[in-house]
Design goal:
This protein has a four-stranded antiparallel β-sheet, with helices on both faces. The protein has helices at residues 18-27, 43-62, 78-81, 121-130, 133-139; strands at residues 8-12, 71-73, 91-95, 104-110, 113-118, 153-156, 168-169. It contains five helices and seven strands, in the order βααβαβββααββ.
């Protein structure tokens, strides 16, 4: 069974607090580094972690210095998988054309290596072939603090994604 979409991406809201949804409706999806500094303890450490990911995964591909922590999405449709926790999470469904492809990439872990590709429909089709439902279920959440580390994810370094109201699915 196919788990990955080839024409849309998803941002799952692990913290579906009403103010989070209101912020997305008002401001769109923002990188962590553009969100209010009231994010709590460890905020600077998280930003340093995302800066390191940019250097390791994206800088060579995107060819720009670090500007923000990125917006993380996935092509995995957890509702198709009936994943116990993720299928119930509110999510934002983002059409592929809403992303700036020059500032975005697709990544996953294969074997012992990280695959990093420019974002394209062809890349998403490859991810869908390489990541059937059983493999997603096997690898998703293997590291509890980094649920999406192994499975396909898309990162965009644009300043924000303007969200249309019908993209938000409760």
């Amino acid at each position: 069974m196919q788990a990955c979409s080839t024409d849309r991406l998803y941002h799952y809201l692990l913290d579906p607090a009403p103010d989070v949804l209101d912020g997305i409706r008002t401001h769109g999806l923002l990188p962590l580094s553009h969100q209010p500094r009231t994010a709590g303890r460890g905020f600077e450490e998280r930003l340093a972690f995302y800066r390191a990911l940019y250097v390791e995964w994206a800088q060579q591909l995107i060819g720009r210095p670090y500007e923000n922590s990125g917006i993380f999405l996935t092509p995995i449709d957890f509702r198709l998988l009936s994943h116990p926790s993720m299928a119930r999470c509110p999510r934002v469904t983002v059409p592929l054309q809403a992303l700036d492809r020059e500032l975005s990439f697709l990544t996953w872990v294969e074997g012992e290596s990280r695959v990093v590709r420019p974002l394209s429909r062809e890349g998403l089709e490859e991810a869908a072939r390489r990541w059937p439902a059983d493999q997603v279920i096997q690898w998703f959440g293997r590291i509890r603090t980094m649920l999406f580390f192994y499975v396909p994810q898309v990162v965009t370094y644009q300043a924000r994604i303007v969200v249309q109201p019908d993209w938000i699915e409760a």
